[in-house]
Amino acid sequence: MKPAILAADLGGTNLRMAAVDHDGTIIYRARRATPHERSRGSIVGLISEVANECRAAILPSYQLVSFGFAVPAVVDGSTGKILSAPNLPELDGFDVAKVLSEGLSLPVIVENDANAAAIGEHWKGASRDARSVINVTLGTGVGGGIILNNACLRGIDGTAGEIGHICVEPFGVPCGCGSTGCLEQYASASAIVRMASALLNEYPESVLADEDERTALVVYEAGKAGDRLSIEVFRRMGFYLGIGLAGLINVLNPEVIVIGGGASNGWDLFAEPMTDEIRKRAFQRPAERVKLVRAALGDDAGILGVAQLATRTDFEASSIIAL
Questions:
Q1: In the predicted model, what is the mean pLDDT of residues 50-58?
Q2: How far apart are CA 243 and CA 274, in angstroms?
Q3: Which domains are assigned to the chain?
Q4: Residues 6+ apart with CB under 8 A from 288
Q5: Of all residues in the chain, what percent are helix, strand and coil, respectively (each to 5)?
Q6: What are the φ and ψ backbone dihedral angles of 137, each rounded to 5 degrees?
Q7: Given pLDDT bands bounded at 50, 70 and 90, which one contains residue 200?
Q8: Average pLDDT, the chain
Q9: Alpha helices in the chain (DSSP H)
Q10: What is the C-alpha to C-alpha distance for residues 60 and 83, in angstroms, rounded to an integer?
Q11: Is 74 helix (H, G, I), strand (E, B) or coil?
């Protein structure tokens, strides 16, 4: 049997899992809703259930040899323990690598989900030919991963790459992290909805005034149809995103900035104000050199990222490794 990697990406809404060969080809994939009862037991139980499904689906051609797990959390790089998971606080302090390794009889590698997405795009996606990359994920929040000289930058505490918590408006909206004016409050899907609601009084003619349920997609579609309020929301999104990225360009001088996540679908409405702000604020040569591109892998980025980590590591049968 040929070796295969089990790779999973846990989010607040869904668990995505796949069996991946050593070349990065997805052999089998599965998806489940994240349990409403977000206890450690229910999450581990779901992971075990889907892992067994993947294992059975690829037999007899492939055999699972390791498990790569992406989580929306700060991870202790030496143990695989989850230190802090803001959207899944039930997992705080959970020694997830040890528990999963024992339950699945596989060596386990654990990675922050935004870092995993950056690694995935660098391996098989939009930044595969670059050595220095900033990866930005515009979802419910704003995530980030940084690749420098082909290595993922994690920081001494595992918190490097928290792009969503760069301050872009010092006296702005309070953020869940405890600060105010974070990029996440101006460039995420939830920020799009918040800004649209906040601006309604200034645009009483907007079609959004009649919407019972405003979502980022609804705002985007209205903007594409010419709604002035929606266009202004995405202009502001691009403005603040440009401020944040300009600072990163000045500090890190990347070759490529990859922008993904669901809210990146509004690219055609926010890209111009974003690039305008970068040109105004970043050093000229780095700003002209950097390539701004859309992510290529979609939901597979995190899965392929942890698969790549697991693929390039020679595990012993009893090893538990967290990166």
A1: 97
A2: 8
A3: 2-112+300-322 (3.30.420.40), 126-294 (3.30.420.40)
A4: none
A5: 45, 25, 35
A6: -115, 115
A7: very high
A8: 93
A9: 40-58, 96-104, 113-124, 184-187, 189-198, 216-224, 228-252, 267-281, 284-289, 300-311
A10: 38
A11: strand
Tell me the backbone φ, ψ of residue 76, rounded to 5 degrees.
-75, 115
- Which tokens sit at 13? 């809404």
Task: Tell me the pTM.
Answer: 0.91
Token pair for 2: 């040929």
pLDDT digits (tens, 9 = 90+) for 107-118: 999 999 999 999
Alpha carbon distance 287, 254 (integer Å): 9
The residue type found at 45 is: G
Q: Are 163 and 144 in contact (CB under 8 A)?
A: yes
CA-based nearest residue to 85, from 261, 76, 304: 76
Residue 244 token pair: 């944040």
Residue 314 corresponds to which tokens in the numbers above? 């020679």
Which tokens go with 66? 């390791």
- The two structure tokens encoding residue 230: 């929606």
Task: Determine the pLDDT at residue 321.
Answer: 45
Residue 110 amino acid letter = V
Residues 6+ apart with CB under 8 A from 278: 242, 245, 246, 249, 287, 292
Task: Say whether 152 sits in a helix, a strand or coil.
Answer: strand
Distances (CA, A) of 249 to 135, 146, 234, 278: 12, 12, 22, 9
Q: What angle do CA 265, 50, 309 make, to 5 degrees?
A: 65
